[in-house]
Design goal:
This protein has about 450 residues and is of the alpha+beta class. The protein contains 11 helices and 18 strands. Helix 4 packs parallel to helix 5 (about 175-185). Strands 9-18-17-16-12-15 form a 6-stranded mixed β-sheet. Strands 1-8-6-3 form a 4-stranded antiparallel β-sheet. A 4-stranded antiparallel β-sheet has the order 5-4-2-7. It has helices at about 85-90, 95-100, 115-125, 145-155, 175-185, 185-200, 220-235, 245-260, 265-280, 330-345, 420-435; strands at about 5, 15-20, 30, 35-40, 45-50, 55-60, 65-70, 70-75, 235-245, 285-290, 300, 310, 310-315, 315-320, 320-325, 360-365, 385-395, 400-415. About 30% of the residues lie in helices and about 25% in strands. The chain starts with a strand and ends in a 7-residue tail after the last helix.
Length: about 450
């Protein structure tokens, strides 16, 4: 019997998905675990694997097409099976807009009511990161999707040496792609990529007017929507402070002599912010508007956990991977996790639990030579910290004048949940931690 696959909800804010690519075409045989398509959500590009054996009989849209959550994505069944009735049942009046491929043939039965839930669960769990789980089943067999095994064999990659990031440590396509990329020559790859970008640039023609319209990606659309809502519904106010980084620079140098992972200044900022939030829980909060139809009014939710979001620039805009329980982690742990999450974010390979649940956000543009800036609050947080570059300044010292390293930070606060004095007290504590890094090791 043919089975309907609906567009799954792959993130908490997802309302529609774009088909980044199809890995199967109508008429192809499909096995359970085969990669059907890559779906671009509002936050990442995620793999959608088949949970059924059969033949791909129908696809809802071509590459680049959009589908709403729970719209008909594909149908898998027996070769030659007529699925026209299933298509009609699952598209209705939207069939002309969303159906770009015609069904392969004859009757199908009603789709089961829980198929949407099964599809969503499968697509989400296949990308869920569980790096603490081994890829070995315990009986000597390696847990890997059929597509990952096939790709590894074709590329000459020893699958036994891969760390699975799928459900329960299962090795998926992304793990093989990462291994393939890391095995390539870094300098050669970078040079080729740069040449491609240069070739793609359209030269300006002297004396001629012109422009190029660029369609927004799903990520860019959601950034525009959410930050517009944040800016015009959250009453922002801003607090700026200058921090002496001399001790932080010295401490970082000493830590990196013994740390298994290189610790960045941003890692120090994340740790200091997490510890300061522990002492100022009012900042580790969200404004919760009253829900329609309920008796309760607006609320402030103060979290008992500290999850720090780190803004990462990607080609399509911005994404915020989350370091969970940051106050409970050592600096090397924060450094390793931040590096891993940032790399996965730039490759659009984050799973939903890796870019949601933040209680506080940090945006750092210091590495881009920015002195200071203000950031728009990242919902549902009450605050976001904007970090500028470290620079040398001449200061008065006891024996005359000298040079010190300073860094400016600006915190944007939601005045509905955080008052000025509350935010200022948090920043004073944050400053103490950064100016005396040994306190973060206690």
């Amino acid at each position: 019997m043919a089975e309907v696959i609906l567009m799954p909800r792959l993130s908490d804010t997802m309302t529609e998905g774009v088909i980044a690519s199809w890995h199967k075409k109508v008429g192809d045989k499909v096995k359970k675990g085969d990669l059907l398509a890559e779906v671009e959500t509002d936050k990442a590009t995620m793999d959608l694997e088949s949970y059924k054996d059969g033949t791909l009989l129908y696809i809802g849209v071509d590459k680049g097409g959009k589908l709403q959550v729970n719209d008909l994505l594909a149908i898998i069944g027996a070769p030659g099976e007529d699925v026209s009735e299933l298509v009609k049942q699952n598209t209705g009046s939207k069939s002309s807009a969303s159906a770009t491929q015609q069904p392969a043939s004859s009757t199908g039965a009603d789709a089961e009511s829980d198929q949407s839930q099964k599809t969503e669960k499968k697509a989400t769990t296949e990308t869920k990161k569980e790096v603490t789980q081994p890829s070995d089943n315990g009986d000597g067999r390696i847990k890997a999707s059929p597509l990952a095994k096939k790709m590894a064999a074709e590329k000459g990659i020893d699958i036994n040496r891969l760390q699975g990031t799928g459900d329960g440590g299962r090795i998926v396509k992304a793990d093989v792609d990462i291994q393939k990329h890391s095995a390539a020559s870094g300098s050669s790859s970078s040079s080729q990529e740069f040449q491609k970008k240069v070739a793609a640039l359209q030269p300006f023609t002297a004396g001629e007017e012109g422009y190029t319209d660029i369609s927004n990606s799903q990520i860019r659309n959601i950034i525009a929507k959410r930050l517009t809502e944040s800016k015009f519904t959250s009453p922002h106010f801003y607090l700026t402070m200058e921090i002496n980084m001399d001790n932080a620079i010295s401490a970082r140098t000493q830590l990196n002599e013994v740390s298994p992972v290189k610790i960045s200044f941003n890692d120090l900022v994340v740790k200091a912010a997490a510890l300061a939030l522990r002492m100022h829980p009012a900042v580790n909060a969200s404004w919760m508007p009253a829900r329609a139809g309920t008796d309760g009014g607006d609320k402030i939710r103060r979290f008992h956990h500290i999850h720090i979001g780190i803004a990462v620039a990607i080609e399509d805009g911005l994404i915020v991977p989350v370091v969970r329980f940051a106050d409970q982690k050592s600096l090397p742990q924060i450094a390793a996790e931040s590096k891993e999450l940032s790399g996965r974010a730039r490759n659009k390979k984050l799973s939903p639990n890796e870019f949601s649940g933040n209680t506080f956000t940090i945006s750092n543009l210091g590495m881009m030579d920015i002195d200071e800036f203000t950031a728009i609050i990242n919902p549902p947080d009450s605050c976001i910290m904007a970090v500028g570059k470290i620079k040398e300044v001449v200061v008065r010292k006891t024996d005359g004048f000298g040079v010190s390293n300073v860094m400016k930070i600006t915190m944007s606060c939601d005045h509905r949940s955080v008052d000025g004095a509350t935010g200022a007290a948090f920043m004073q504590t944050f400053k103490k931690y950064l100016e005396n890094p040994v306190m973060m090791l206690l």
